[in-house]
């Protein structure tokens, strides 16, 4: 691990903590924006770690409203979402500094993983507690907030000065 990677990871985790305080519904918050940005800048491993830590912070601040085991599953899903988002973006963008096509494809996949796939993973735990209607009620909120987190992360990534892009390439 390089010092720059550690410092940037810590910065993004701190930003996740701030985002975790901006809640929309229960433990659904703006904690994943730094994870998506970290996935773009630092790659899939760091992005996954930031995303997982961000969700854990949100769940802790919310008092684990869906239970500790459910939030651990969501945490794993967040890590997978960040890793896949990063890998898909890298595959499409290749050497480009910014790829609109990469952002769109990776973003759509990120929303699908963070919304419907996350809910499918939680069916055995949430369906008995909140029913089918409750599960469906989460879908637009989860997907919408995921989309906003991704859009914000991509917007910030696009606006980063060229010199920061050069630093990213050296990491």
Automatic annotation (TrEMBL):
Query: Mind telling me what this protein is named?
Result: Alpha-ribazole transporter
Q: Which organism is it from?
A: Pelosinus propionicus DSM 13327
Cite a single GO MF annotation: transmembrane transporter activity
Which InterPro entries does the record match to this protein? ECF_trnsprt_substrate-spec
Entries under Pfam families matching the protein: ECF_trnsprt
In terms of Gene3D superfamilies, this protein maps to: 1.10.1760.20
Keyword list (alphabetical) reads: Membrane, Transmembrane, Transmembrane helix
Signal peptide limits? none
Question: TM spans, by residue?
Answer: 6-24, 36-58, 70-90, 102-126, 132-160
């Amino acid at each position: 691990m390089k010092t720059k990677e550690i410092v940037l990871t810590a910065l993004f985790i701190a930003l996740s903590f701030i985002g975790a305080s901006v809640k929309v519904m229960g433990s659904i918050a703006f904690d994943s924006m730094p994870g998506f940005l970290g996935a773009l800048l630092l790659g899939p491993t760091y992005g996954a770690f930031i995303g997982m830590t961000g969700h854990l912070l949100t769940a802790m601040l919310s008092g684990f409203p869906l239970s500790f085991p459910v939030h651990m599953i969501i945490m794993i899903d967040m890590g997978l979402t960040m890793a896949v988002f990063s890998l898909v973006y890298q595959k499409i963008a290749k050497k480009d500094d910014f790829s609109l096509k990469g952002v769109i494809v990776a973003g759509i996949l990120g929303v699908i993983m963070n919304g419907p796939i996350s809910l499918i993973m939680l069916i055995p735990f949430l369906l008995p507690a909140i029913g089918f209607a409750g599960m469906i009620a989460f879908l637009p909120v989860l997907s919408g907030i995921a989309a906003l987190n991704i859009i914000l992360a991509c917007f910030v990534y696009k606006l980063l000065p060229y010199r920061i892009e050069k630093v990213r390439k050296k990491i």
